[in-house]
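Re: that backbone. Tokens:
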């Protein structure tokens, strides 16, 4: 891959925002792209798809590219369609964009995101050479082949492929090679032994008015909470507490939460390495903070 260049035969091309010109070039070589806000975050959800009603989340069976006209759902909004990229619905996003991202899995690629020098050193000792791209703190190693994305598979190592996006940082150096089994194996972990939540964990208070539209609303909330914990990076402790707090705030006063729901949240946390004691403390502290 080479850097994008303007087509001198197209007098309108140079009038486009710089990030949009880059995005069009990437789309032309088969990379689904989207604009990023300052801080690498995607643009916010549209009203019609609030709470991921369109199925853009990885844990939802209907997960897939969003059909909305605006770039509003992270990886699911990524596209190679130049007409969409240059449409009026996307114009504001490109004017505000601070970077371009792409959906590796949508192009049959996997990015091994090495976040520091120690992670880079590990990759050089354990993974086959491939195309590499320098980042602010480390490197992206890009392989041909898609797989499940996962964060924190090793200290300082994330995998970005299906249902994820990576920031475009240039064409890099070297030649892309096939995705090795050594990378695929990083997401195959022996789960930590998980014990059920004990009866000493505070159960929801109950008695309040239920605001849930249907059982699906509660199920979706629990599934999203599980996914948030699963996707946590280095701050697993704070993510677990914050997630417990959010679940109790939304569902804890009407008595709809059951032992089974709590066990699912504890299981997600313990799979990420949290101890049962920390789960109990985080749950109790969240309940206390809400006056339950």
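Recovered sequence:
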């Amino acid at each position: 891959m080479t850097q994008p260049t303007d087509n001198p035969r197209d007098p309108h091309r140079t009038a486009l925002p710089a990030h949009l010109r880059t995005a069009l070039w990437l789309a032309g070589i088969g990379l689904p792209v989207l604009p990023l806000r300052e801080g690498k975050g995607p643009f916010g959800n549209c009203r019609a798809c609030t709470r991921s009603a369109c199925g853009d989340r990885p844990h939802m069976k209907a997960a897939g590219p969003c059909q909305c006209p605006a770039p509003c759902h992270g990886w699911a909004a990524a596209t190679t369609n130049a007409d969409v990229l240059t449409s009026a619905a996307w114009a504001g996003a490109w004017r505000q964009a601070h970077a371009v991202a792409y959906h590796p899995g949508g192009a049959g690629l996997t990015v091994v995101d090495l976040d520091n020098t120690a992670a880079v050193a590990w990759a050089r000792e354990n993974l086959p050479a491939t195309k590499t791209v320098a980042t602010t703190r480390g490197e992206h190693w890009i392989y041909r082949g898609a797989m499940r994305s996962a964060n924190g598979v090793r200290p300082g190592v994330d995998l970005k492929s299906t249902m994820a996006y990576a920031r475009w940082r240039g064409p890099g150096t070297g030649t892309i090679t096939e995705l090795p089994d050594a990378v695929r194996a990083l997401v195959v972990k022996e789960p930590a032994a998980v014990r059920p939540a004990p009866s000493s964990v505070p159960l929801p208070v109950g008695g309040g008015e239920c605001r849930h539209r249907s059982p699906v609303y509660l199920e979706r909330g629990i599934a999203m909470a599980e996914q948030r914990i699963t996707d946590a990076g280095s701050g697993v402790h704070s993510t677990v507490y914050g997630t417990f707090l959010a679940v109790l705030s939304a569902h804890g006063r009407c008595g709809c939460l059951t032992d089974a729901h709590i066990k699912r949240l504890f299981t997600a946390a313990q799979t990420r390495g949290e101890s049962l004691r920390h789960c109990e403390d985080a749950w109790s502290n969240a309940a206390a903070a809400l006056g339950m």
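Residues 2-12, 58-64 have pLDDT under 50 and may be disordered. The first helix runs from residue 18 to 28.
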